[in-house]
Structure formats: structure tokens, C-alpha cells
Amino acid sequence: QDVSSSGLADSQVKTVAVLAAAALPPPKDGLKLQSDRLVGGFRAFPTGDDGADAGRTPGGMPGIDGALDLAHNAFHPRRKGYDHYIKLQKGACRVLDAAARVLGVPTDHLLVAALAVAFGQISGRATVKLSLIVPMRDALGENQAVANLATTRHLCLWVGGGRSLAAAAMDLSTRLRRREWELCDILGDDGDRFFVNVRGIPRFDGAAPVMEAVDTTRRPTRFVRNLVEMFADQETSESWTLWMGIHEDLDGSALARALRRTLWHLVVEPLEAAVRVEPPVAG
Fold first, then answer.
1. Please, which residues bridge with residue 153 across strands?
2. pLDDT score at 22
3. Which residue stretches of the chain have pLDDT < 50?
4. Exposed site from 168, 204, 257, 259, fewest CB < 10 Å?
5. Which of 278, 257, 200 is nearest to 232 (CA)?
6. H/E/C letters for each residue in the chain?
7. How far apart are CA 271 and CA 99, in angstroms?
8. Neighbours of 263 (CB within 10 A)
9. What is the pLDDT of residue 58?
């Protein structure tokens, strides 16, 4: 018993020493973080300017930066939709990686940009309204907090007017890095957004996670809140499965073809116009 107690004490001492050497900040109170962000969701201003909010907690993350998104599920859910799956196999993934290296953009950022461009092409939209699931763990100590901090963030990407694929992709990546979010316009929006949750393979030192394959036989979607609601799952280093509920007026196969063209042109013709929206014919 004495030997066991001594071994446990030594282990604890070593653990404390390792943590001290790592200089990790103390974890934040996860429950308080979630509570503060819920309150922030009710108090946030549409512009993200909380200057008038004199009663806010000092040092908090007010407004658009830290607020829980309470508007994402505000749209009417009874729009008819259906399920569609897109598989990115080894060749497509290598093209995606090559384009990311050419443009200096992270792969997940580039995938979202390519999806936005493809969506703009099949829907004829010069501006694509994007809604993304974001971890929201940027502040010191939040990475170690035990809490569900992920929420929805919104932004609009201009892909028309002859704007090039490269310009659209780099603009989106820059705004994602800078966290230049927009609040969801409940009154002005009509559910014409492209919602996407990108779930890449997490990276660990000394470990390689095994991801569960997406079941592409499931057909649960009957109605959608947005035009496209997608989960982009990276199954291996060279395969992605994009599962979406898509509005009945849109063609999922056309989206897949547009995505294939966009990925290829991001490598070989990055200065090509992203979306060509024809002006309406005067009648």
C-alpha cells in the first residue's frame, strides 16, 4: 500500500511538472462561458457594436464575437427538399490539395469557397449567403473548457461581376481567419442560404483517428430550412463525403458537376470568372 501511494504521488508530481512546463493557461468555466454567450445572443447589436451596452461584463466577448446565434433556426422549415450525396475521391482530393497550395489557402476554407461558387453557378446567384458551424474557441483558455461552444456564423460571399475564382477563395479565407462574421438578418433573409458544417479529421500528436464512414443510403430529409444544408465529412486523407438536404428546386447532380469544374479550374485557371450571372432581359 505504501509503495502504491508513493508511486501515485510521484505520478502526480510528474504530471504537475509536465503541465507547468507546457505553460498551458487554466481552463475557463465552461458553464459560465455558455451562459455568457446565451445572454450575448439576446444583447448583440446587428452591427456588432456594443458601445451602448453599458451593463455588459468587463472582459467578456460581447456582440457578434461571442454571442450564441439564436437566429439560425428562425426560418420556416416546411420547404420541400431531398437528400443528395457527393463523394470526393482520391483524384478530387489531390486537386483540392493542389489548389490549396497554389493559392495559399487552407483546404477546408477552399472547399467552402468551391462549394459557394458551385452553388452560385447552379442557382444563378451573384452573392452567396453562407452559414457555417464555427468552434468559437479563440480566446485564451477556451480550448480546454468543457463546453459546447460551437455555434452558427454567417457571411456573404460575392462571386459575380466577373470576380475570379482565386479572388473569391482568398477573400473568403481572409474573412474566416479574421473572424469577420455577420449576424443573420431575420427580417431580410428568406431561407436562401447555403448552410455547411465542415468536419475534417482532427489531428493529434502520436495518434491517428479512425473516422466512421457516412451511410449514403440514408434518406431522412423531407423538408429544409435553407436551400442547401450540408455536412462535409472527411473520412480519410483522400476522401470526403458531402451529405446534404437540398431544396426541391435545385439539382444536386448539377451541384456535383459544378463543384468538379470549380475544383479543376481553381488549379488550372484560377483567374477565371467564378459565376457569370446574365442580366435580366428587358421586357
1. 132
2. 64
3. 1-3, 46-63, 279-283
4. 204
5. 200
6. CHHHHHHHHHHHHHHHHHHHHHCCCCCCCHHHHHHHHHHHHHHCCCCCCCCCCCCCCCCCCCHHHHCCCCCCCCCCCCEEEEEEEEEECHHHHHHHHHHHHHHCCCHHHHHHHHHHHHHHHHHCCCEEEEEEEECCCCCCCCCCCCCCCCEEEEEEEECCCCCEHHHHHHHHHHHHHHCCCECCCCCCCCCCCEEEEEECCCCECCECCCCCCCCCCCCCCCEECCCEEEEEEEEECCEEEEEEEEECCCCHHHHHHHHHHHHHHHHHCCCCECCCCCCCCCC
7. 12
8. 24
9. 38
Q: In this predicted structure, what is the pLDDT of residue 104?
A: 93
State the amino acid at position 142 in one-letter form: E
pTM: 0.81
Residue count (the chain): 283
